């Protein structure tokens, strides 16, 4: 039995959301707590152990963006070639609220992931410091872990939006819109 288009988009949204969560958690786990300070003349050079935290953080942010893009697509996609106007979708108050919350949580999660990853990358790249007692810290501990949960929450909000959009579609086509004579068939082809 083939999966419907809405199920496929929902699963893809969920897959990228979970992937973003896992990658950010792995980035947090693999991030070293500090680098090794090497005293030089008038400067401290920080040497950080090789770790995949920057790459994992970047991939997590990319996966979060893909999850959000698929979530938006799933809400507005014309399933079975039948389009529901945006005004009709957003006239449904729960969908309107959940959509805007999903956008906000997505921006917070992806933004936090990018910020923590960029901070870590800058610390690795700019490793010469003029302060004699510099301890070579890494980016703030726990930020990528928190971003991981925000990305997971965003994915869940997008799934709820998809379910609410499916309900609005059914109501819209059951009321005789869309040229199917009110039969409401073929929505999920």
Automatic annotation (TrEMBL):
The keyword Disulfide bond does not apply. It is found in: Endomembrane system. It is a multi-pass membrane protein. The keyword Transmembrane helix applies. The chain crosses the membrane at residues 54-77, 97-118, 143-165. GO terms for cellular component: endomembrane system. Pfam families: DUF1218 (PF06749). Its main location: membrane. InterPro entries: DEAL/Modifying_wall_lignin1/2 (IPR009606), DESIGUAL (IPR052222). Keywords: Membrane, Signal, Transmembrane, Transmembrane helix. Residues 1-27 form the signal peptide. Belongs to the DESIGUAL family. This is Uncharacterized protein. It comes from Digitaria exilis. The lineage of its organism: Eukaryota, Viridiplantae, Streptophyta, Embryophyta, Tracheophyta.
């Amino acid at each position: 039995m083939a999966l419907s288009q809405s199920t496929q988009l929902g699963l893809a949204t969920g897959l990228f959301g979970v992937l973003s969560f896992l990658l950010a958690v792995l980035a947090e786990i693999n991030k070293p707590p500090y680098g090794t300070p090497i005293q030089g003349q008038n400067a401290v050079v920080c040497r950080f152990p090789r770790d995949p935290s920057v790459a994992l953080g970047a991939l997590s942010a990319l996966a979060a963006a893909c999850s959000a893009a698929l979530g938006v697509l799933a809400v507005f996609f014309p399933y079975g070639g039948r389009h529901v106007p945006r005004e009709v979708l957003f006239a449904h108050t729960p969908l309107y609220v959940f959509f805007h919350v999903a956008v906000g949580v997505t921006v917070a999660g992806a933004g936090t992931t990018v910020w923590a990853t960029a901070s870590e990358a800058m610390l690795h790249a700019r490793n010469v410091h003029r302060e004699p007692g510099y301890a070579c810290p890494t980016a703030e501990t726990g930020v990528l872990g928190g971003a991981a949960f925000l990305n997971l929450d965003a994915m869940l909000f997008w799934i709820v939006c998809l379910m609410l959009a499916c309900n609005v579609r059914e109501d819209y086509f059951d009321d005789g819109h869309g040229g199917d004579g009110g039969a409401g068939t073929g929505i999920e082809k």
